[in-house]
């Protein structure tokens, strides 16, 4: 007689089940090069560490960084950037992705130098450093494929090792300042990454021009000038318009309570949200939702 089927995940400790969707490590080859597959992880939810074996330029709002292989690169979901492959035929590497919740209780990820706005997100490696970092990624791959029940605790420790190792490496040099079109594009990307919102648990929402400027590594005045040039609007106006658009969609197409909508959009209280909506929509919230 066959034993009854048991889901192997049911045997895992609760803490381990929680970590399964919050961390992964894998080769980059399928997602870079001439015919890359779509990136499988939401940029707004996951931090990223990559060992990149290829020539690339990393474009940020305030600078561009060119790298030769090998390079160690860090991605913060609140800092938009794009990657220009200078040699698509010769691209490979490894990557690990993880959420902020994966490190819950172990500090704030954005406090680490590699993830700070205006910090150093890209490091050029020599041959010895490449072997060292490749070894760290190999340890992560071996661990995640193991049957050890507490492997995610080990993986947290290995990632922390990388976060502390990187500031001792040589940062790659930025070679140019960006124009208003690039600053504006990165602002729009960062603004859009916040939506759609969710009620429980809500994500932190950036609402102040200074918060956006800090993430983009520019001053509020630079950001305002760029948006005025590209969109003929101030930073505050762009943020207000997008928040209002999201609020209208939630009011019309969901049955969320007003308090949940207010919280999800970053307002401290329903009354503050109602005042914001009525001042900018020029219509009462009650009448709009009918």
UniProtKB/TrEMBL annotation:
Transmembrane regions: none
UniProt entry keywords in alphabetical sequence: DNA-binding, Transcription, Transcription regulation
All copies of domain HTH araC/xylS-type, residue ranges: 211-290
An MF annotation (GO) of this entry: DNA-binding transcription factor activity
SMART domains: HTH_ARAC (SM00342)
Organism superkingdom: Bacteria
Gene3D superfamilies reported in the protein's UniProt record: Homeodomain-like
Cited InterPro entries: Homeodomain-like_sf, HTH_AraC
Protein name stated in the entry: Helix-turn-helix domain-containing protein
């Amino acid at each position: 007689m066959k034993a009854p089927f048991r889901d192997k995940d049911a045997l895992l400790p609760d803490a381990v089940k929680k970590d399964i969707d919050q961390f992964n490590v894998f080769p980059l080859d399928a997602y870079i090069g001439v015919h890359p597959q779509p990136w499988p992880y939401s940029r707004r939810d996951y931090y990223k560490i990559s060992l990149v074996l290829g020539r690339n330029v990393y474009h940020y709002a305030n600078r561009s960084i060119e790298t030769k292989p090998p390079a160690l690169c860090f991605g913060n979901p609140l800092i938009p950037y794009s990657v220009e492959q200078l040699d698509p035929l010769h691209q490979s590497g490894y990557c690990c992705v993880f959420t902020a919740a994966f490190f819950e209780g172990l500090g704030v990820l954005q406090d680490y130098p590699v993830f700070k706005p205006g910090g150093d997100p890209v490091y050029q490696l020599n041959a010895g450093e490449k072997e060292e970092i490749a070894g760290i990624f190999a340890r992560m791959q071996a661990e995640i494929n193991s049957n050890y029940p507490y492997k995610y605790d080990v993986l947290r420790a290995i990632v922390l090792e990388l976060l502390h190792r990187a500031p001792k490496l040589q940062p790659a040099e930025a070679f140019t300042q960006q124009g208003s079109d690039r600053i504006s594009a990165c602002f729009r990307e960062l603004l859009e990454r916040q939506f759609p919102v969710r009620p429980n648990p809500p994500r932190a929402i950036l609402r102040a021009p200074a918060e956006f400027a800090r993430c983009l590594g520019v001053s509020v005045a630079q950001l305002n000038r760029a948006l005025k040039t590209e969109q003929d609007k101030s930073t505050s106006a762009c943020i207000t318009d997008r928040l209002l658009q999201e609020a209208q969609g939630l009011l019309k197409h969901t049955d969320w309570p007003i308090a949940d909508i207010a919280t999800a959009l970053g307002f401290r209280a329903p009354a503050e949200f109602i005042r914001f909506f009525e001042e900018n929509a020029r219509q009462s919230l009650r009448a709009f939702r009918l």
